[in-house]
Amino acid sequence: MKKKTKLIHEVRAVKSRRELANIIKAQRISERVLKDVIKKLKSGVTELAIARFVTERFRRYGASVLAFPPIVSFGKNTANTHHEPGKTKLKKGDTIMFDFGCTINHYCSDMTRTYFWGQPSRRQKKVYQSVLEAQNRAIKKISSGEKRAKVIDKTARDFLNKKFGVKRFGHGLGHGIGTVIHEWPNFKPKSEDVLPVGCVMTVEPGLYFKGWGGVRIEDMVLITQKGCKNLTNFPKDLKSATLVPR
Ligand SMILES: [Mn+2]
Q1: How far is the CA of 109 from the centre of ligand 1 (A)?
Q2: Measured in angstroms, how far is the CA atom of residue 181 from the centroid of ligand 1?
Q3: 173 CA to middle of ligand 1, Å?
Q4: Where is the Peptidase M24 domain (predicted)?
Q5: For 101-142, what is each residue's pLDDT tens digit?
């Protein structure tokens, strides 16, 4: 029987060892940059100054082509998933969100981390822990061998919707990543995609409250025969997310 030819998006979703090595290298550089960025934060600094610092560090570490313009948001701006860094200054009690990535030989990385500038409030804690739990549940589901994108999306979504209502997690759970930042397959409620072994996916649940703020946590995982391997190596527990203002 003749095998059905694969379409180009299906072919490119599956990464060779070399392609994967580039994605991982891009991710390791992002982690170095994020480490520097956290040290650079101080009360009164603007989102724009930090975003410029991100770009400058990527260049220093040999990744001058970014995967997308870096997202740096403070305070209530963290509720806007597509926030453009501006003149907003960092102040005590703020939620801080970073979403950035670079490219190595055209291969992208993508990571989001959320922080608190000082001890988080009860609500900040609750939102953070819930997003983290949603991500853990989704990754666990993938680890169990699940390959249906909508089932994985549902695992995180049901958990968050039950706690916060259906309007707070307003985007897909994640996307394929490669030479472009968003590629097939997609974690979405109505997705019919089935993850091929060897594709790299982001897992990025979030909760957003207009006028208050938001939390998103994003890792990249490699889909394997039996489950997945997390390619992101950066702390995300609540303690690590709590920064001491200076
Ligand atoms: Mn992403």
Answers
A1: 9
A2: 7
A3: 9
A4: 22-225
A5: 999 999 999 999 999 999 999 999 999 999 999 999 999 999
pLDDT digits (tens, 9 = 90+) for 76-106: 999 999 999 999 999 999 999 999 999 999 9
Q: What is the CATH number of the domain that holds 149?
A: 3.90.230.10
Residue 73 forms part of a structural domain: yes
- Answer for the pair 217, 97: CB distance below 8 angstroms, yes or no: no
Give me ligand 1 centre to Cα 120, in Å. Answer: 25
Ligand 1 midpoint to CA 1 (Å): 39
Q: How many domains is the chain partitioned into structurally?
A: 1
Distance 182 CA to ligand 1 centre (A): 7
Q: Which residues contact 111 (CB under 8 A, 6 or more apart)?
A: 27, 30, 31, 34, 98, 99, 100, 101, 218, 219, 220, 232, 234
Is residue 1 a part of any domain in this protein? no
211 inside domain = yes
Distance 202 CA to ligand 1 centre (A): 6
Beta bridge pairs of residue 221: 201, 230
Contact predicate 71/99, CB 8 Å: yes
- 2 domain-assigned: no
